[in-house]
Amino acid sequence: MVDLELTFEKNLSIGQKIEPRDWMPENYRKQLIRLISQHAHSEIVGMLPEGNWITRAPSLRRKIALLAKVQDEAGHGLYLYCAAETLGISREEMFDQLHTKKAKYSSIFNYPTLTWADIGMIGWLVDGAAIINQTTMAKCSYGPYSRGLLRICKEENFHKIQGMEIVGILCSGTNEQKEMAQESLNRWWWPSLMMFGPHDTNSPNSSDLMKWKIKIKSNDELRQRFVDMTVEQAKVFGLTIPDPELKFNTETRSWETGEINWDEFYSVINGNGLCNNERISARRSAYEDNSWVRDAATSYKIKKNKKAEAA
Ligand code: BYC
């Protein structure tokens, strides 16, 4: 046991990835299951607010791009569920945790998509925040998660560019279009900052995650990176960040924001956001209504295996 633990620590210290068959501390496994399954849930729940606009996209080109994006999110969910399964949890167990509200998913997807500008905002801000988080997390110590994230980040980049294109076009359009983009930014700015989690001093999981090199940068460090990048992009769009306290610190050369509404954050992650119930009931009915697909796939697999055995 001591030897196994030493090998694990040594591998961590030299940057060698930990693989499914390697020995790992029980809490390392548990933390990874929590983190990766929550991430997987976020991807598939994230399909819902965007899917809401597929039938209402303003042109065929936009519809095709949005369809492809939503489909990509399903693929990301699949990579991530597979990565979590390597740690010994089943897909059914993870779905059950989501459907019974035992598992969390990103707070951001509990806000509604009210206008077409929201689809642009999700690409620019939500995918933008996700890329900052995930490109860092792609350097994490667990092999399957790290490799999954590398693939995901490549696709998220397209999503972000697609979102920025939508926002850019609205901002260079009529006054009404620009107002629509500003109104959307007003609603999505603060929830986007919440995506990075609580302040480091209030983040109970961070010390374990950082010790095990699962988390490489802290919640606040990544949030700051996002703010510095996004404030400059908003200037190019001619949009105003809805934060009267936003100011540039000339010493640190970075943007300081006002305080996030943490009551709202905790209320949303504890199930009381605007769309929590709607999202979970949509996921539950999708799972139940499509049980025939799983049954058909399983019986096909059994038949195929029997044929192979008989041959
Ligand atoms: N939302 O100790 P902390 C996407 C929870 S999807 C909900 O700091 P940790 C995309 C946290 O789980 C983006 N819950 O936690 C998809 C913990 O509760 P539990 C998803 C949150 O894990 C479709 C408690 O608060 N990305 O990209 O150290 C379309 C204390 O927090 C949130 C990932 O999942 C939140 N925002 O750090 C477009 C990336 N924040 O579990 C885009 C991987 C905190 O102890 N995950 N909580 O009950 C992470 O990087 C980390 O889990 C977090 C939180 C930074 C989010």
Describe this structure in words.
The longest helix is centred in the middle third of the chain and has 29 residues, at 143-171. The protein has helices at residues 2-13, 26-45, 47-51, 60-85, 91-99, 116-137, 143-171, 175-194, 206-211, 219-237, 262-272, 276-289, 291-310; strands at 247-249, 254-256. The protein has a single domain, classed as Ferritin. Helix content is 68%, strand content 2%. The protein is mainly α. The protein has a two-stranded antiparallel ribbon with strand order 1-2. It is built from 13 helices and two strands, in the order H-H-H-H-H-H-H-H-H-H-E-E-H-H-H. Residues 34-35, 38-39, 42-43, 46, 73, 104, 106-107, 126-127, 130, 133, 137, 194-198, 203-206, 209, 219, 269 line the site of benzoyl coenzyme A.
Strand order of the largest sheet: 1-2
**H/I helix tally:** 13
Low-pLDDT windows of residues:
none
Q: What is the terminal-to-terminal distance?
A: 44 Å
Number of E-type strands: 2
CATH superfamily, called what? Ferritin, core subunit, four-helix bundle
What's the CATH topology name? Ferritin
Computed Rg: 21 Å
The coarse silhouette is globular
**CATH domain class:** Mainly Alpha
Order of helices and strands: HHHHHHHHHHEEHHH
Write the layout of secondary structure elements.
Blueprint: H1 2-13, H2 26-45, H3 47-51, H4 60-85, H5 91-99, H6 116-137, H7 143-171, H8 175-194, H9 206-211, H10 219-237, E1 247-249, E2 254-256, H11 262-272, H12 276-289, H13 291-310
Antiparallel strand pairs: 1-2
Helix pairs in contact: 2-4, 4-7, 6-7, 6-8, 6-10
Bound molecules: benzoyl coenzyme A.
The site of benzoyl coenzyme A has 28 residues, from helix 2, helix 6 and helix 9.
